[in-house]
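Hallway conversation turned thread

IA: we were arguing at lunch whether anyone had actually written out Abasic site processing protein end to end. Turns out nobody had. So, for the record, here is the sequence (220 residues) and right after it the structure tokens. Reply here if something looks off.
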Amino acid sequence: MCGRFAFHSLDLSTLAKAVHQHDLFVDAEPRYNVPPGTLISVARRVAAEAPVTIEQLWWGYQPYWADAKAPQPINAKAETIATSHYFAPAFKRHRCLIPVDGWYEWLNVDGRKQPHYLTRVDNQTLYLAGVWTERGDDKPPGVAIITEPARGTAREVHDRMPLALDDDSLEPWLDPHFTEREAIRGVIRHIGAELIQHWTVSTAVNRPGDNGGPALIDPL
């Protein structure tokens, strides 16, 4: 799954190159412990001919047409997102990217949960595939991060991981012209498993919020 992440570099250069734009930047502060139920930086294209924009959207997905008591998931499974009544409309029309530097998972060690930080070995930005939906009542749109079965060393920490896309997949993922599942599958690839590394970090990250700053991602 993906329930906490860090985005501190604010570097969107790979995405800017992929979508042929020079004006992509993040109007936000570096964050080292981003929890659900907060505003996060999201890249999306709201119409077929519109430019890619970076906006602050809500991490929690609840469509405006859903009952008020409907769930507000933060993740969606890659295996079922295209056929799920809850997510399928967004998968077809409202795909987005969530830039992060890394994410956290917790490994049970002797009855205690030890946090690990997972990131790219080359320190490049990770672009996580997501979907967004209008929430209504003047609320900012809500977002869910897509997850897939864990690969490579990520499997040592958790059985699932966020779907991080390779550079060539960024533009087609944001292209509203792709609406059918098989067409999307044909142009989308996740990054290689060999690009992911992880290490243990302080349990200070267990407290949601930006506690500790850069020290939160330091290896123990």
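OS: looked through it. Helices lie at 13-18, 88-93, 170-173, 181-187.
IA: good, adding that to the notes. The radius of gyration is 17 Å.
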